[in-house]
Design goal:
Layout: H1 5-25, H2 39-66, H3 69-100, H4 109-130, H5 135-159, H6 175-217
Helix pairs in contact: 1-6, 2-3, 2-5, 2-6, 3-4, 3-6, 4-5
Length: 218
């Protein structure tokens, strides 16, 4: 584990504790009011959901190409985090949408593709857990399929009619909203990095334990 892990964990804990105060300091949006503050968790979580899918899919591709276990560990670690941040997105989105749009859910391009990609990585974890021998390669194929959906999720709101805002919202935020937003985004990004290190380390220790069991059996 990196020597920076402990201080980074402390910094992340402080930043996480500060996010409610930072969000509270941001002004209310003129039309949605208080409920708009879900934005500060929802959008960074959506970014990390897509980042985790990209990392898992890319690592899976390298694993299929060169069979190195390090890539497989990265893939499964990021897949789990994709499911975690995706769950946050799929919970906070309807809570915000009910107030903003008047409906909990709409089967538009972005919402549907986000749900589909999240389900693909849920299937990835299920295959890894119950697929038996060779399940790592089958799961890697699923991760590549999920990876292919990520660009579609991002651009879908710009090319199809949808109730979801387009991708130009964040760059146009005023400083009073942009500051809290980027603080929350950096906090969750740091959390993702720390969780990745922990999860990869767990996979390494699991491999060492399996090797010890095999050595004892011999």
């Amino acid at each position: 584990m990196s020597t920076l892990f402990t201080p980074a964990s402390g910094l992340c804990a402080i930043m996480l504790a500060a996010t409610p105060l930072v969000i509270a300091s941001a002004p209310y949006e003129s039309t949605m009011g208080l409920v708009q503050k879900i934005f500060y968790y929802h959008v960074p979580s959506a970014w990390l959901m897509m980042l985790a899918a990209l990392v898992s899919g890319t690592a899976s591709g390298f694993y299929l190409f060169n069979k190195k276990l390090n890539w497989d560990r990265i893939a499964v670690a990021s897949a789990e985090l994709m499911v975690l941040f995706g769950a946050i997105v799929l919970i906070t989105g309807p809570l915000w949408g009910r107030k903003a749009w008047g409906v909990w859910w709409q089967w538009d391009a972005r919402l549907t593709s986000s749900l589909t990609t999240w389900m693909i990585f849920c299937a990835y974890l299920i295959v890894r857990r119950f697929g038996g021998i060779g399940s790592e390669k089958l799961a890697a194929g699923l991760a590549l399929f999920g990876l292919a959906n990520v660009p579609f999720i991002y651009v879908s709101v710009n090319y199809w009619r949808t109730i979801h805002p387009t991708t130009n919202v964040v760059p146009t935020l005023p400083l009073s909203m942009g500051g809290p937003f980027w603080f929350c985004a950096l906090t969750l990004l740091l959390l993702y990095i720390l969780f990745m290190q922990l999860r990869i380390r767990l996979e390494e220790q699991r491999k060492q334990l399996d090797d010890l069991y095999l050595a004892v059996d011999k």
